[in-house]
Design a protein that fits this description.
By secondary structure, this protein is α+β, with helices and mostly antiparallel strands. It folds into three domains: about 170 residues, Reverse transcriptase/Diguanylate cyclase domain (Alpha-Beta Plaits, 2-Layer Sandwich), CATH 3.30.70.270; about 55 residues, no CATH class; about 170 residues, Dna Ligase, domain 1 (2-Layer Sandwich), CATH 3.30.1490. It contains 15 helices and 13 strands. α4 packs across α5, α9 packs across α10 and α11 packs antiparallel against α12. Bound molecules: magnesium ion. Magnesium ion binds next to β1. The site of magnesium ion (MG) has 5 residues, from β1.
């Protein structure tokens, strides 16, 4: 398979930006935090801090314990966006970017002779140098080159920081065997359990699995075949661009612009989105939760969003549980210093990666089936007696806070798309 893609992943991007801007922070263990408080958690750590076990999500107190002498820096998201654009600009002087995946990841396509390993390697070095000279010498990246975007990303993950990894035919698939199943984007702990249930415990077994087995595991022939082909280095076109999401968002009324109020409204939106998903006969594979926080002093607003993949589901308890987990990662929480300067202003949830119910298999896990039963009970009662007679505990007191007329505006669209 030719080397068609080059994937760039900036290493510890936020921490690197800080070290680039502030020379006194260089060569020191550094973590970036959302707000200056002992109760908050790290949102990024430099490699020196990572070596001590500090990760995204490590609480500040624990980071101090793990890594004595660690320095904390409050995040400056505006600055990181500026740096992101500089990185994009530097890369594009060498090679056009095909997709910007996130603030610190992008994919380029290699064509013609660029696909020769030697030339591809030289291009990667030119990209690294362009970033060093145009953005800064602290801005390291890991580059992966492979036959499709999935394998190029995996190649980039293989060597950090400042890596360069090619997955050529000669190295495939053995080069993958050192990985864990969960190193594959799209394989979380629960998908790993499903793979285990089918006798797949290693990447070697994963790579040898038949398309039929993978289809059973993913609950979809299309997805199973897609994985089968991706693992063999095929350049599988993305699934149709038909928009496949159910989303609800709501601007909080002034009385609910509190941590608690935002949570209540968010829970209601998740209940509605889950009911909607079942009504249109779809299952989702990913959940995201977002909020905008308005700054009382600066008058600006900051958009925050977290995303998690979930094993295909459509039941309210599972989706609520995921949304709660994501919400717990919000940068400003009640009680944490600094939260009085930021108030939630709008909340949203998006259920994505939808597949029709007929191509999803019912869950193998008892807990999930219980969730299914609860969801059907919710739907039956709510359909009969009006929306939201029944709802899960977290919604209590919030039944009327997200008027249906606002949140439902996109549904007619969606119906047309699905039918
Ligand atoms: Mg990165």
């Amino acid at each position: 398979m030719p080397l068609r893609y080059l994937f760039i992943d900036m290493n510890s991007f936020f921490a690197s930006c800080e070290q680039q801007d502030k020379p006194h922070l260089r060569n020191r263990p550094l973590a970036v935090i959302p707000t200056d408080a002992e109760t908050t958690s790290c949102i990024a750590a430099c490699y020196r801090a990572k070596a001590y076990g500090v990760r995204t999500g490590t609480p500040v107190w624990e980071a101090r314990r793990l890594c004595p002498g660690i320095v904390f820096q409050v995040a400056d998201h505006k600055r990181y966006v500026v740096m992101h654009h500089r990185v994009v600009d530097a890369v594009e002087r060498v090679l056009p970017i095909e997709t910007v995946m996130s603030i610190d990841e992008m994919t380029c396509r290699l064509t013609g002779d660029e696909r020769q390993p030697l030339l591809a390697r030289a291009i990667a070095h030119r990209i690294k140098n362009a970033i060093y000279t145009r953005v800064g010498d602290q801005m390291h990246c890991s580059i992966g080159i492979g036959p499709n975007p999935l394998l190029a990303k995996i190649a980039a993950d293989m060597q950090k920081p400042n890596g360069l990894t090619l997955l050529t035919d000669a190295e495939m698939p053995q080069a993958l065997f050192q990985l864990k199943l969960t190193d594959f984007p799209g394989v979380g702990p629960r998908m790993e359990r499903r793979l285990n249930l089918h006798g797949i415990f290693t990447v070697e077994q994963f790579c040898r699995a038949s398309a039929k087995t993978l289809s059973e595991i993913w609950g979809s022939k299309k997805l199973g075949e897609r994985w089968y082909r991706l693992l063999r280095g095929e350049d599988v076109p993305d699934t149709p661009t038909r928009r496949q999401t159910v989303s609800h968002s709501h601007v909080l009324p002034p009385a609910l612009r509190t941590d608690e109020g935002a949570f209540g409204v968010l829970m209601r939106l998740v209940h509605k989105a889950a009911a909607r998903l079942r009504k249109i006969g779809y299952w989702c594979g990913a959940v995201s939760v977002g909020a905008s926080f308005w700054g009382k002093e600066r008058g600006d607003s900051v958009w925050w969003e977290e995303y998690a993949r979930v094993p295909r589901c459509h039941d309210t308890p599972a989706l609520v549980a995921t949304a709660v987990k994501l919400w717990n990662r919000r940068p400003w929480k009640a009680g944490s210093p600094g939260c009085e300067r930021r108030v939630p202003f709008k909340v949203s949830t998006v259920l994505s990666d939808l597949v029709p119910a007929r191509s999803a298999t019912p869950s193998l896990f008892d807990d999930d089936r219980k969730g299914e039963d609860i969801s059907h009970a919710l739907d039956t009662v709510n359909n009969q007696f009006g929306a939201n007679v029944l709802y899960l505990g977290a919604m209590f007191g919030m039944r009327d806070t997200a008027p249906t007329r606002i949140a439902f505006t996109q549904i007619p669209d969606f119906d047309r798309r699905v039918n």
